[in-house]
Design a protein that fits this description.
It is a single chain. It is elongated and about 75 Å long. Helix 10 packs parallel to helix 13 (283-306). The protein contains 18 helices and 14 strands. The protein is α/β, with parallel strands linked by helices and 434 residues long. The strands form three sheets. Strands 3-2-1-4-5-6 form a six-stranded parallel beta sheet, sandwiched between helices. Strands 11-10-9-12-13-14 form a six-stranded parallel beta sheet. The chain folds into two domains: 2-198, Rossmann fold (3-Layer(aba) Sandwich), CATH 3.40.50.720; 232-434, 3-Layer(aba) Sandwich (Rossmann fold), CATH 3.40.50.720. Strand 13 (408-411), helix 18 and strand 14 (428-430) form a beta-alpha-beta unit.
């Protein structure tokens, strides 16, 4: 098949590269000339393990290309994917559909043959019908169908998630569109991966419901972690006991500084707003949002308490600022709440992150960026483990403690054990839920 993908952000680029690896001819479109130039030069504008090699492979075969010309990309395309950003709209918490509707308008202006217009972006329920109406209004002669195909990609594991999905969700209005989408995903169908064919609204809702549920699971275990600290229980053991229940499962049960990233914060806010608009308040989701914000603030208190109530003038080394490991994504990362609070309290903050500096320099003013962990902790009075990069999972704790002025550790990802930290020379250690 020939496929056009509009948008070369995280979702669009990963999808386009993976579709080309399925054997389809894919053209990825972006309005940013600098981004297209970068992609044509073989450079990937985002950090995602393995994406650069897979992109190069499919460019070399001739199945994958990049352009700023949507009209040319749409020529003979049987499926046109909209994969543009839907950030939270200022003021009301809803998803901003400006880019989606702009893409729909441009598609309408250039649509000459039948194609399925597929929304890959995360959009509120009812958006695909609005896309259909917008295209039909702008081009009454257009022959097309719309489809909803939400993504379920975890940053840092996106290629695996695309190639070996738990499920593929497709919302359509008729058999013709369903047949086109079945052909798009034929390689997965042949390997027996579940493909859920449903209506537009159900497909749109599945995405929001899934992300809200996972955000709830994270927030629930973080609340239990706070109670564990009060009653003397160990959240790691509690999480293990919970996760072994087949009805619950062990994923997303790791206590920490709260969820962040490009999906959970944005999608929980959007779901809450959708509920409000339809007179059906999403009480659980709204509470999850509030509790997650409180969890981040609780982490700040942990660091202050660790430093005996004052950070003024103290050197604090922060290990990891991206919202999770194996990504350069800083969107709604807990660090964006925690680090500025440390700086505001008078701490001299040094930051180490394998991929976070490119975005983090603008987002975290007033910090010093250091490449090496052991240099970052030199004469420091506290080290804060904030993102569980592999580089931070096997540190020489004794070497770390020996370099610090006052060896204190706030292990906000529960990577180490207090006994090991104490044996290595740390005089104070704080974890989450332990």
């Amino acid at each position: 098949m020939k496929i056009a993908v509009i948008g070369t952000g995280y979702v669009g680029l990963v999808s386009g590269v993976c579709f080309s690896d399925f054997g389809h001819d894919v053209i990825c479109v972006d309005k940013d000339p600098a981004k297209i130039e970068m992609l044509e030069a073989g450079e990937v504008p985002i950090y995602e393990p393995g994406l650069d090699q897979l992109m190069a492979k499919n460019v070399e075969t001739g199945r994958l290309s990049f352009t700023g010309d949507l009209k040319a990309a749409m020529q003979d395309a049987q499926a046109i994917f909209i994969a543009v950003g839907t950030p939270t709209r200022r003021g009301d918490g809803h998803a901003d559909l400006t880019y989606v509707m702009a893409a729909a308008k441009e598609i309408a202006e250039n649509l000459t043959d039948y194609a399925v217009i597929v929304t890959k972006s995360t959009v509120p329920v009812g958006t695909n019908r609005k896309v259909k109406q917008a295209i039909a209004k702008a081009n009454p002669e257009a022959r097309f169908d719309v489809a909803s195909n939400p993504e379920f990609l975890r940053e840092g594991a996106a290629i695996d998630d695309f190639m070996k999905p738990d499920r593929v969700v497709v919302g359509v209005q008729n058999d013709r569109a369903g047949e086109v989408m079945a052909e798009v995903y034929r390689p997965l169908y042949l390997r027996d991966f579940p493909i859920v064919i449903t209506d537009l609204e159900s497909a749109e809702m599945i995405k929001y419901a899934a992300n809200a549920f996972l955000a709830t699971k994270i927030t629930f275990v973080n609340e239990i972690a706070a109670l564990c600290e009060r009653v003397g229980a160990d959240i790691k053991q509690v999480s293990k006991g919970l996760g072994l229940d087949g009805r619950i499962g062990n994923k997303f049960l790791h206590a920490g500084p709260g969820y962040g990233g490009s999906c959970f914060p944005k999608d929980t806010r959007a779901l809450a707003r959708i509920g409000q608009e339809h007179g059906c308040v999403m009480q659980i989701t709204e509470t999850v949002i509030e509790v997650n914000d409180a969890i981040k603030r609780r982490m700040i208190d942990k660091v202050v308490d660790l430093c005996e109530g004052s950070l003024n003038g103290k050197i604090v080394a922060v290990l990891g600022v991206t919202f999770k490991p194996n990504t350069d994504d800083m969107r709604d990362a807990p660090s964006l709440t925690i680090v500025p609070a440390l700086v505001g309290a008078g701490a001299r903050v040094r930051v180490v992150d394998p991929q976070g500096r490119s975005e983090g320099e603008a987002l975290l003013p007033g910090v010093q960026w250091v490449e090496d962990t052991y240099k970052a902790v030199q004469n420091a009075e506290a080290v804060v483990l904030l993102t569980e990069w592999n580089e931070f999972r096997a540190l020489n704790l004794k070497r770390l403690a020996n370099r610090m002025a006052t060896p204190r550790m706030a292990d906000l990802r529960n990577i180490y054990n207090e006994s090991d930290a104490r044996d290595a020379g740390f005089t104070a250690y704080a974890a989450v839920g332990r």
